[in-house]
Amino acid sequence: MNIDKVKSLLGMAQKGRMLEIGRTAVSVLIKRKRAALIIVAMDGSEKLKKEIEFICRRNNVPIYIFSTKNELGELCGRESVAVIGISDKHLADGIKKVLL
Hints:
Elements: H1 3-15, E1 19-21, H2 23-31, E2 37-40, H3 46-59, E3 63-65, H4 69-75, E4 83-86, H5 89-99
Parallel strand pairs: 2-3
Antiparallel strand pairs: 1-4, 2-4
Helix pairs in contact: 1-5, 2-3
């Protein structure tokens, strides 16, 4: 897996306002049917993971468990991030290819 590629794609998503960070923003993104991909940190709380996974399943949104909150935060230019959502399908497809 190429972390630099993921960081680059997340940076593009953030600059293009196609990246939502945090439980509330991601939940709204999913419920409004605008989410193309959700990424949850593996060390996020079990409650968060179950909640986001449930909403993703109900709305047919792909979800990946990836890295730690600190590493995910670093990729997004923050200290610690437990969940992010990408709204652009093309960027989401690029990230999925790198994560697989």
